Amino acid sequence: MKRQLYTADHEAFRETVRTFLAKEVTPHYEQWEKDGIVAREAWRAAGRQGLLGLAVDEEYGGGGNPDFRYSAVLAEEFTRAGAPGIALGLHNDIIGPYLTSLATEEQRRRWLPGFCSGELITAIAMTEPGAGSDLQAIRTAAEDRGDHWVLNGSKTFISNGILADLVIVVAKTTPEGGAHGLSLLVVERGMAGFERGRNLDKIGQKSQDTAELFFHDVRVPKENLLGELDGAFVHLMTNLAQERMAIAVAGIAAAEHLLEITTRYVKEREAFGRPLAKLQHIRFEIAEMATECAVTRTFLDRCIVDHSNGELDAVHASMAKWWATELQKRVADRCLQLHGGYGYMAEFPVARAFTDGRIQTIYGGTTEIMKEIIGRSLLG
Hints:
alpha+beta, 4-stranded antiparallel beta sheet, 10 strands
């Protein structure tokens, strides 16, 4: 089915993204995978190409365009290129809205130009060793000392954790407040007592630096409170729909791309003297995956339109996230199986997609949490 989501401007932007990937990412990606981290120059190159801060006002160096479809194009092309390591989606779509909607004018002028140029790489630190989706279990705490906060605690599984110059930390500021006693504090590179642990060794997305962060008596100026005091819960819930949509868009793009490369493979690969594509079982597998992708794509494109118009609710974002990422996981597994032994070889794109994509049903809210949100909305 012909997609009706994008205009000529979106497709022109797609060509810009593809050119950037071919020049600045693909030639270096294998080295980044070995290094376990992306070169900072790639972020600056993304800034020069106008791929950072798409929705940030032009006066701060951004693109000035809040149309989420441009972010969707970016997610689709980076996914097709097999390059999740340079986490532009995290920077633009997850952290960007916190800075544009919650920051004071002074904070915007201090942080957004670097955010858009690639000089300031960002992260958000929510997850702790003993607290994931349960915000009430967060133990990292900040004590009010008059003109500053004193922050203590630790976070884990933080994407961009090694590279980040600016980290939005979810911390308890009112101990008795539970989930409603949390605030967002911005910790900057070089603050005394802010330390990074090891770059975590993951099964996939090797070039995406994921780290432990430690805060020991970190003095955070009052000027670095982002949004309302004790308002983190509301702020987080407000921005989760876009985070989940960004993950969902990458999920369906990955499934479609895996289907494409596997369809080509079974046409070329022979078994028992004829192409795999001539076997009925193979044709049924491809037919099933193609149908699942087509149906999912239709729903996702509708969600993208609704989100671009400010009409997407948390329930449909949750539906999109869990369905698209679970589809991605199923398709990756089936496509690897159809590649046979070659699918298990690291140099084959299907093998990397299998390990890179496995996290999709976990971060941004697990599939189980998505189902709970949906079920609660229907059953109370």
